[in-house]
């Protein structure tokens, strides 16, 4: 697509300015509206099912959904931003936001950032350029994802991460962001169909960051769009087989009126042909494997202690040890 390199140049621009959160252009008008209240199943099919419920509901909440996992980051280097609580005290967001003050506000409570807890990721892609001949190089860059810890940990169950690509023209994504023009007071949401090839290599212009993305395009009827301040917010897709909602990606950037792009979190392979390369007749292809979900889960999941032994097993073990000690006890009495 001819807009790909233009797309790369807009990603950081859209994310670094304090604009509003997820914008609703579905009415087809130039002036968007914003969904400021939590969605329900009347807005999004199955939205109020498929979520593990916490032991105690957040204040003012009767049922927890993905809405309760997306919060605001109070002072990233590029201004107000969003993040998603994964569980076990860990938050995920986009690396292009920087690592300034990462205090995280979720459901009305601010959770302090744990110093030096940031985890970043690197990814490898093969860049193959075909013109009169073929040249192949390996590109290793930081991925547009970071994890960090907050303390104390919010009382929410861990989120499942989607393990497969969205399905083009079929999967529907719920986008949630917390930019709100810098005031960080209003969370908003949108609901689009993934209607472009769901595995696209994105090299963020002006940085060394890259990502494997999926995209929603704005068609003749305008759709919801992510805009500045939404970066790092959550994108959820319903898994009809497991009957649960899963975190599929992070809001990364947009080209207003054209598309929105989301960092894909699953383990996947990608192959992107960039037709907008410098030399006439030249074709550049990026291929690689992304394994973010596995790495993320390895980092955030606590190492469990040895499993507790059932009472009957303790009794049996005691009896065995007692019998083993019996002969020596008898010998000592002689």
Which geometry do the CA atoms define? globular
Number of helices: 3
CATH C-level class is: Mainly Beta
* Order of secondary-structure elements: HEEEEEEEEEEEEEEEEEEHH
Architecture in CATH?
Answer: Beta Barrel
What is the terminal-to-terminal distance? 92 Å
* Gyration radius, rounded: 24 Å
Short description:
The protein has 334 residues and is mainly β. The chain has a single domain, classed as Thrombin, subunit H (Beta Barrel).
Give a verbal description of the structure.
With 334 residues, the chain is mostly beta strands. The chain has a single domain (4-300), classed as Thrombin, subunit H (Beta Barrel). Helix content is 13%, strand content 38%. The chain contains 3 helices and 18 strands. It has helices spanning 4-16, 292-300, 311-333; strands at 23-24, 70-76, 79-87, 90-93, 101-106, 109-111, 119-130, 134-149, 172-177, 188-193, 200-203, 209-217, 224-225, 234-239, 244-255, 259-264, 267-274, 283-291. It has a 16-stranded mixed sheet that branches. Strand 15 (244-255) and strand 16 form a beta hairpin. The radius of gyration is 24 Å and the shape is globular. Residues 1-21 and 328-334 have low confidence and may be disordered.
Give me the secondary-structure topology.
Blueprint lengths: L3 H13 L6 E2 L45 E7 L2 E9 L2 E4 L7 E6 L2 E3 L7 E12 L3 E16 L22 E6 L10 E6 L6 E4 L5 E9 L6 E2 L8 E6 L4 E12 L3 E6 L2 E8 L8 E9 H9 L10 H23 L1
Parallel strand pairs: 8-12
Antiparallel strand pairs: 1-13, 2-3, 2-5, 3-4, 4-8, 5-6, 7-8, 7-18, 9-10, 9-14, 11-12, 12-16, 14-15, 15-16, 17-18
